[in-house]
Recover the amino acids of this structure.
């Protein structure tokens, strides 16, 4: 894939990413995985890295994908592509449409968009859950399940913590990233050390 095409692909993704960077994952799957540019496993690795490093998720994942596909120039092209639509839209809104958001019709449009974003995020959750924990690259091909017992155990151990409140506040997401990373290093490291295949 050329750098120009990489820029255009992420420009389209950035243009329609509404509701946070995670909403772009289905579009990355369609535009990059389905055409064979990157594998679904690579995208999952990019997601893990992008979630656990500082900075906006969309920019991080665009940079990682661009770097993987075409080096530094690809990283710059993908990052510029995913950022540019937001910059253009913000400038237009700030300049021309100051009172636009107060209109009832605009509010109704955004209500519909929120429903779509909820569906996209649910799709991302199911894709990650099936792919990472059950080893299923296609949810429809249930016969090819190869579960990851360590991943399932970590998920089952950490998931209840999402409902715990300390002094009336839920745990910060950073806590989950750290504890899951530590458990992953410990459990998978021990398996490698003792030669256990999972």
């Amino acid at each position: 894939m050329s750098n120009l095409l990489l820029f255009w692909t992420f420009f389209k993704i950035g243009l329609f990413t509404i509701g946070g960077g995670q909403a772009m994952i289905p579009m990355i799957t369609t535009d990059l995985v389905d055409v064979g540019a990157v594998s679904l496993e690579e995208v999952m690795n990019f997601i893990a890295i992008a979630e656990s490093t500082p900075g906006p998720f969309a920019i991080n994942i665009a940079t990682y994908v661009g770097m993987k596909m075409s080096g530094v120039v690809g990283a710059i092209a993908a990052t510029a592509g995913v950022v540019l639509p937001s910059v253009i839209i913000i400038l237009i809104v700030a300049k021309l449409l100051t009172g636009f958001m107060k209109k009832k019709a605009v509010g109704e449009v955004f209500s519909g968009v929120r429903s779509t974003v909820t569906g996209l995020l649910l799709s991302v959750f199911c894709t990650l859950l099936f792919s990472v924990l059950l080893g299923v690259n296609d949810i429809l091909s249930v016969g090819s399940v190869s579960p990851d017992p360590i991943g399932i155990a970590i998920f089952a151990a950490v998931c209840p913590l999402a409902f715990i409140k300390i002094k009336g506040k839920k745990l910060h997401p950073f806590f989950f990233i750290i504890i899951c990373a530590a458990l992953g290093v410990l459990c998978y490291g021990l398996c490698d050390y003792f030669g256990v295949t999972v």
